[in-house]
Request: fold
Amino acid sequence: MLPRKSTADASFLAAARKIFALGAPFARTIAFCMALILISTAIHLSLPIGVQRLFDKMLVAQNVEVIHAAAMVLLLVFVVRAVLSYFGSYMLQVVGDRIVVLLRKQFFKHLQSLDLAFHHSQRVGDLMSRLSNDVGAISNIVAGTAVSLVVSSLQLIGAAAVMIGINWRLALV
Reply:
C-alpha cells in the first residue's frame, strides 16, 4: 500500500500550481531570461580554461601586442557576461513584479466578492497586511529565490563538469 500524502504536501502543491499558472503568460520571457542567465553562467564557468590558454599563449609568444590583445578579449568577455547576467536578472525581476501585480489583483477581486459579514469580522489592518506582506513574500520566492536556486544549481553542475574536464582525478578528490 502506498503512503498517503499529507495535507501540507497537497496544499503546497496546489499553491505551487497556482503560482505557476500566474507565470504561464510570461513563459516565453522567463525562458528567454533563463537562456541569458544560462549563457552568462556558461561564460563564467569557461573563464578559467580560457584564461589558462591565454596565459599559455602569452608566455610562449612573449609579445606585448599579444598580451594587449588577450587583455582586451578578456575584458570583452567579462563585459558580455555582465551584460547578459544583468539583462536576464532584470527581466526576471520585471516578470516577477508583473506576477505580483496579477496576484494582488486576484486577491483584491476576491476580497471584493466576499460577504459584508466577512469584512465586519476582520480587522482592516489584517487584510492590508496580507495584501502587502504575503504577496511580497511570494514575490521574493518567485523572482529571487527560484532564480538563485536555478543559477546556483547550474553553476555547481557546470563547475563539477569543468573540473572533471580539466583533471578528473583531481576533481574526484
Remarks:
- The radius of gyration is 24 Å.
- The mean pLDDT is 81.
- The chain has six helices and no strands.
- The longest helix spans residues 64-113.
